[in-house]
Amino acid sequence: MTIEVKVPALGESVTEATVGEWLKKPGEAVKVDEPIASLETDKVAVEVPSPVAGVMGEYKVALGDTVEVGAVLALVEEGATAAAAPAAQPAPAPSAPAPAIPSAAAPEPVEADGLTLSPAVRRAVLEHGIDPSTVKGTGKDGRLTKEDVLSAAKAKEAAPAASSPAPAPAASSASTGERREERVKMTRLRQTIAERLKSAQENAALLTTFNDVDMSAVIEARAKYKDVFEKKHGVRLGFMSFFAKAAVLALKDVPAVNAQIEGDEILYHDFVDISVAVSAPGGLVVPVVRDCDKLSFAQIEQAIADYGKKAKDGTLTMADMQGGTFTISNGGVFGSLMSTPIINPPQSAVLGLHRIDERPVVVNGEIVIRPMMYIALSYDHRLIDGREAVTALKIIKEAIEDPTRLLIDL
After folding, report:
1. 202-220: per-residue pLDDT in tens?
2. How open is the CA angle 93-94-95, to the nearest 5 degrees?
3. CA 277 to CA 354: how far, in whole Å?
4. 308 to each of 181, 222, 281, 305, 316, how far by Cα in Å?
5. Is the separation of the CB atoms in 91 and 65 below 8 Å?
6. Domains in the chain, CATH or no CATH each
7. Short-list 182, 173, 57, CA closest to 107
8. DSSP 8-state code for residue 291
């Protein structure tokens, strides 16, 4: 029996998506609820499961096509076996010749020794000259991820030149003087990020205030308790929970930083839902840690760790990223010294964290070396005055430099 696989509900106010990747080829066996395709929405990638067990049949849409909720994606032959079922052919390509321009959203996946590579992985393979058949995939069902390719590229660079006699494609192009360009279509997620950030610049009166923080106390506390913390709670003690708790103090004392503008009204929140910027394969996403004012350090760290894993695996849902009253973005993990983060509308403020450097500072009239971090608070000046922004950032600084304040709510 032939079963139609349709585009599932994608979340509140989301009516369409882009076909980002086929996870099963025609003729391959599929299990009940096994993902057969990945759809890209404005915020997340959504995997479409097979409703029945059988054999993958014909594709009804092509990679890169925009599909609406309820549209038929593909067919599955229920109860058939892969050995007995002939492989159905994908939908024929358009008769008109397509321009020779690769697209991140709409290319056919490349195959190498039986491997199917997603567009992001394909680009990484070409850029770094990696043989995908020699790299072990850590993604779902053993699929190769972009991170796998980048790790292999680093290992290749670290190895002696004699161990890699075959020149990479990039090196070959350089030796012949060939100059290459690649034009790729923006993914739906990247388009949405671009639109939201540009909208924030155009519609908000953005301003950033800076301060620096002596991280000595937090580093000392973390070093002293991290082992027993992980043993008791099963999660590592990081810096983000300290900053989340410090932000809670600031937002409670300066409510405007936790508010937002709606028309000609100001909406104040008596709760703190912190959006934590996380790097995902398709771009930056901001899942929300809800009720941070009620959570313990361990609960905050666990929530952040869970979101980080889901972002890497591409399993974040729309519900994970809806809401949020304030954002924390940590550019320090990538080595950033200082930045001016952009607010995440409709929120009115974002805290930017940066790398920790040992720097000379004056303490009690003496020059000493301390682990210092620059922090930045970007805010919508239509709602938040400079005095309020500076005060909020100062509260965060003082709480990090004296973590006891986090315990006694001071």
Report:
1. 888 999 999 999 999 999 9
2. 115
3. 13
4. 33, 20, 11, 5, 9
5. no
6. 2-176 (2.40.50.100), 205-408 (3.30.559.10)
7. 182
8. T
**Rounded (5°) CA angle 168-21-77:** 130
Output the CA–CA distances (angstroms, integers) from residue 210 to 160, 218, 340, 402, in the order listed.
44, 20, 9, 19
The letter for the amino acid at 263 is G
What is the rounded CA–CA span in Å between residue 225 and residue 237?
Answer: 8
Residues with pLDDT less than 50, the chain:
84-88, 91-114, 161-167
Strands 326-330 and 283-285: unpaired
CA torsion angle for 204, 347, 12, 34 (degrees, to 10)? 110
| CB crowding 107-124: b at 16 or more within 10 Å, else e | bbbeeeeebbbbbbbbbb
Give the residue among 310, 328, 215 at the shortest CA–CA distance from 272.
328
- Is-above-0.85 flag for pTM? no
* Nearest-angstrom CA–CA distance, 75 and 84: 17
SS3 382: coil
Residue 2: phi and psi, rounded to 5, are -85, 125
Question: What pLDDT sits at residue 204?
Answer: 87
Residue 287: C-alpha distances to residues 28, 113, 279, 344 (Å): 35, 37, 11, 12
Residue 77 contacts residue 50 (beta carbons within 8 Å) = no
If DSSP codes are grouped into helix, strand and coil, which group holds residue 179? coil
- d(CA 81, CA 76) in angstroms, rounded, equals 11
CA dist 85 and 199 (Å) reads 51
Return the active site residues: 381, 385
Six-digit token pair at 405?
């304040």
